[in-house]
Amino acid sequence: MTPGTASSAGFPSAGFFDELVRDVVRRPEEYERLGFADCRLVIEVVEPTGEVRRFGLVLDGYDIRSEGEIADLDGFHPEVVVSGALDTWSEMLAAIAEHGFADRSHTLNALSIAGFPLSARSDDPIGRDKFYRYAETLQTLFDSVGLRAPAEA
Amino acid sequence: MANLAADLDYRERASRGELDLGWLRRSRAEWGIRAEPSRIGLTLRDIAVGTYGEVPDHPPRRTMAPRGADIPDDVPDMGYTINDKSEVWSDNVMELYEEAVSRQWSATRDIPWGDLAPIDPDLEHAMCQLATVLSEVEMVAADFPAKWLWRINHDFVEAKMFLCTQAMDEARHTEVFRKRALANGGGLGRATAVVEEFLKVILDAQSYDEGSALMHLLGEGIVLSLFRAGEMIAPSDVEKRIFRLCMQDEARHVSYGTMHLRYRLQRDPSLAEDFHAYLDRGEALMAVLFTTPEVVEPATILAAGSLEAAAALGSAASDVLRIQTVEEYLQRCDRAGLDRRGRMHLPDDLIAGTSGVAPGGVEAGASSPGTTVAAASGGVA
């Protein structure tokens, strides 16, 4: 997979995130073991053209819902927005697909720790801190890309 | 002390089967109350119904009786010294307690210890030293709540329960870093006077206000940043998982500290100067931490991947960590209602590149490439 191109079942798309959250249905015991969570999160993808696309995820108890592509960011009331260029997201997903999980330098935390190439921004540090409070749940969710068959990834 | 002599008349009546719960019918309990469980189960928020959900600002009694129970006049006074709700409360404390219970993990079971493999001796030394420091500092965050728990009025039981989860979290952190130091051939490294001084300041705090500001807001904020950095620079997936799981717990404690300070200041803004004074003192020690080899070198070597590469990396890695730590701390202070910008007690070199620089102070040009100064972006990043 070439970074910067669409990858992992059409990333970025609502379909990609719909498929992502199906992992919670497929492996409920994995997520229940990590504990419940409560967060409205937006994944923001900046295309090479400068176009910004946003996808909503809601962590609600033991469930995670995909809310599709978000046109009205404020209307979604996100507690935290994790943002980065398409190249960065694609490279992260490629690393997960290759290793089966995010390697040392491609976890959500590692990519966002300096605010670059991903950033976790929020109007409220309590919302930003939720990105840390649920780090293992979110990483498990994205790492599920590594569990897919090669044709899917 | 109340007269607690055995009631032999009652024993006689009870032996004859004269049991009618009549004494209970005279109680003021809300008979008929029925809390409904939510989707994740029956939470503290779910049972905060009727008068049971009313946490008094100033409880009239100092007993261990459950809030809402009928309390006879002759129960002893427990002598609690923290009897003002705002001294310990935060609006998110019930949810944080539930989250803490739900997200517990085991340092024995949930870490893939069997995957640890021999690594370069310099990296093993660095990892073990970092584990030593973290094992050293984490237990104070159990000792501090334990020191104050028995002084807190039992009507604030949800806050006490949250502090109990924190003690358990910190015990696990102490455990997991001790285990890591001993699990791969390195062993424990070196303790430092400055770290111990910082822990002593927290433990010796004259009030819960002082200790909570120093520990929940400042100290745990720094450790949260260290955990985040640790996850990134971990030499293997074993340490990566350790740091990520610890990060989750620590962020919960920091969220309590932030919202507790906010609750406190909203009800008594005149305390702001007291909190500034506590943090003035704490930040002075934070400055020393940022220049202590036992803390700085392990992180730099792990970030670089080797001792040689660390020399080339210089302070770039620690600058990223420093700026991120300071920015997130300032943002949490803001959220709590305490503006520390312009009055932080850090030397110019350590405050450079952050929004904590006083007007006319050091330039932000020292910021490392790729770091962000959140104040410039409107939100927090």
Explain what this protein looks like in three dimensions.
The complex is a heterodimer of chains A (153) and B (381). Chain A contains seven helices and five strands, in the order ααβββαβααβαα. In chain A, strands 3-2-1-4-5 form a five-stranded mixed sheet. Chain A has one domain (14-147): Nonspecific Lipid-transfer Protein, Chain A (2-Layer Sandwich). Chain A is α+β, with helices and mostly antiparallel strands and 153 residues long. In chain A, β2 (52-61) and β3 (63-69) form a beta hairpin. Chain B has a domain at 92-347: Ribonucleotide Reductase, subunit A (Orthogonal Bundle). The N and C termini of chain B lie far apart (57 Å). Mean pLDDT of chain B is 89; it is low at 361-378. The interface between A and B is large, with 36 and 44 residues.
Structure keywords:
heterodimer, A: about 150 residues, alpha+beta, five-stranded mixed β-sheet, 5 strands, disordered N terminus, B: about 375 residues, mainly alpha, Ribonucleotide Reductase, subunit A, about 0% strand
